Amino acid sequence: MFALAPPLPDFRKVVDVCCGMGRHARVLFSRGYSVTGVDRDIAAIIRARELAGGPRYIHTDVRDYQPDACAYDLTIIMSQSFGYFDASTNRNVLRDLAAGVRESGRVILDLWNGKFFSAHQGERDLELPSGTVRETKRVENSRLFVHLDYPDGEYDDFEWELFGREQMTLLADSMDLDLIIACTDFDIAVGPGAGNPRIQFVLERRSA
Q1: How far is it, in rounded angstroms, from Cα 131 to Cα 2?
Q2: Average pLDDT, whole number, for the chain?
Q3: How far is Cα 116 from Cα 170, in angstroms, rounded to an integer?
Q4: Distance between CA atoms of 200 and 162, rounded to whole angstroms?
Q5: What are the φ and ψ backbone dihedral angles of 86, each rounded to 5 degrees?
Q6: Which of 22, 30, 50, 153 is the most exposed place for a label (fewest CB within 10 A)?
C-alpha cells in the first residue's frame, strides 16, 4: 500500500487530506514521516489529537484548505474522500492541493472505480445488527449516486464524481500534473478493472 511504504527520503513531508481520526496519518508518522492531517469533522480531529501518534492536525473544510506553495512532498486522499462535489469544485480542490506539493511531488487519490459501479447498479439489502439497510446505487453522467434507507425510516444520499484513467489524465494535465500510476488494490502491477470497487491514481507535479 502506498501510504504504508517504508519512509522515502524524497517524500517525508506528507499531508493526509480528509484524514478522519488519523488512521493513516499515525501510521505514516510512526514510520518516520512528517505528517499533517486535515479534516472538517471537529469530533474526528479532537479524537485524532487525543490518540497517540504525533501528527499535526488542522480543522478545516477541504474546499477552504490552501496549503502553502510547495509545502509538502506528498498529498494523500484516502478512502474515496475526493469527488464529493460538483466537477468545478472538485477541480478547484485538486488544484489547490496540487499547488501545495513541490516540483516532482506527488498526489495519491484512492477513489471509487466507475467501471465497477457501472456493472453493479441497483438495489441490495445490507443486514446489520440494527436491522436491514436498503442500498440503491446508480451511475449517471459519470457520477455515482447512493441512497440508503435505514430501518428507522431515516435515509441518506451520497454522490461522487467518478474518474477513469482518461478523465484523470485530462484533469491532471490541466493543472500541470502527470498521471504516472493507475492501479487497484494499491498494487502497481494490477491494472484497474470492473472487478474491484476502488481505483488508485498517483499524480506527479511537473518541473517548471
Answers
A1: 36
A2: 93
A3: 21
A4: 12
A5: -70, 165
A6: 153
**Rounded Cα gap, residues 135 and 155, in angstroms:** 10
Q: Which residues make beta-bridge pairs with 156?
A: 148
Residue keyed to cell 517504508 = 6
Cβ-contact 44, 21 below 8 angstroms: yes
Contact (Cβ atoms closer than 8 angstroms) between residue 75 and residue 97: yes
Q: Which residue has the cell 440503491?
A: 136
Helix (H) or strand (E) holding 173: helix 165-173
Task: Kindly report, residue by residue over 30-80, the tens digit of the pLDDT.
Answer: 999 999 999 999 999 999 999 977 899 999 999 999 999 999 999 999 999
Structure pTM? 0.91
Residues 62 and 38 sit within 8 Å (Cβ to Cβ) = yes
Residue 192 to residues 3, 111, 179, 187, 198, Cα–Cα distance (Å): 18, 11, 14, 10, 8
What lies within 8 Å, CB to CB, of 66 at 6+ separation is 96, 99, 100
